[in-house]
């Protein structure tokens, strides 16, 4: 029987391909900000959106379109818009529809910059924000007794890999009239599919695993036609969240190797998490693929793989954490993640340093936590490096 729907690996290589008249094999990079028209009438029709001409690269560009179409195929979404950074995606998805007096409920365990938007920027504009413990379904139920416009969460969260039950929260959110937006950066579309679980929109920092080689910034918002075309795009076009054609082209090519890279990174991460869990100098390890993760059952239910990020707490204070980080010789100290190079950081004093001690305590982030983003080096070399760094604690 002829198969009509291709597998994800095929979509990642071929999806969205738009060949020019030259019939190039590799996707073309259209470095152009403007586009010309055959006539003044055609220009006018393009501005009335009656044709599918490209108009201006702030609105769209053929290379960016290929990237968006490939991402949409990967996610199983009707539509996608790519943005200049992940934060541009997060901010635009909120700013395009929230008004003064609206309410947003979010899980407290968030990427640092998302936390600042929710606790400082949106409240300044009269938007009511409630942050809750996203792992607690009763907390969601209580918060969603009040009519709510948007629910926002990360799962797994940065840096402690807490999970939110996407299906259960989506159901409660819809009953409260809220749209559900999921930051799916840590899981990637290969291992978690929020739209299938009931969410309405998904956002990415494509800076992370999608570029995957630590080169450039990018982001994306995916959802249904009505949201992306009628609500998100008009805001995006006028406010300048667009990604550059060059960045979109690099990431379009990166998607071709995404599944190979993610599978290799996740396999090493699982080995490292198991090693850390049995190590005397480590107090605890958070990795969704370990049976000791407090939400391991949920991880198995809603994820098909467990990611490349691990958090662990060493048996020692901040100075000891710094000593371990400084002792690493292969793994670099960096706050970035999802790179082919393995990277480690001390979240308390870097990625989450804009939070107060009280907020950090509420999130369970301690001065002994180290976050590790597992790259593409040999798993044996990574394990040796971590073991030799931890050995200074004896
Ligand atoms: C990095 C990151 C972002 C922000 O993306 P940028 O590309 O840095 O703007 C948002 N959410 C999560 C979970 C991230 O890891």
TrEMBL record:
Q: What is its EC number?
A: 2.5.1.-
Co-factor(s): pyridoxal 5'-phosphate
> Keywords, A to Z?
Amino-acid biosynthesis, Methionine biosynthesis, Pyridoxal phosphate, Transferase
Sorted alphabetically, the Gene Ontology BP terms of this entry are:
'de novo' L-methionine biosynthetic process; homocysteine biosynthetic process; transsulfuration
The Gene Ontology terms for molecular function here are:
carbon-sulfur lyase activity; pyridoxal phosphate binding; transferase activity, transferring alkyl or aryl (other than methyl) groups
| Superkingdom per UniProt | Bacteria
Q: Fetch the CDD domains from UniProt.
A: CGS_like (cd00614)
Pfam families recorded for this chain?
Answer: Cys_Met_Meta_PP
A single cellular component GO annotation: cytoplasm
Provide the catalytic activity annotation: O-succinyl-L-homoserine + hydrogen sulfide = L-homocysteine + succinate
Q: Gene3D superfamilies attached here? A: Aspartate Aminotransferase, domain 1, Type I PLP-dependent aspartate aminotransferase-like (Major domain)
* Similarity comment text for this entry: Belongs to the trans-sulfuration enzymes family. MetZ subfamily.
Question: HAMAP family, alphabetically?
Answer: MetZ
Q: What name does this protein carry?
A: O-succinylhomoserine sulfhydrylase
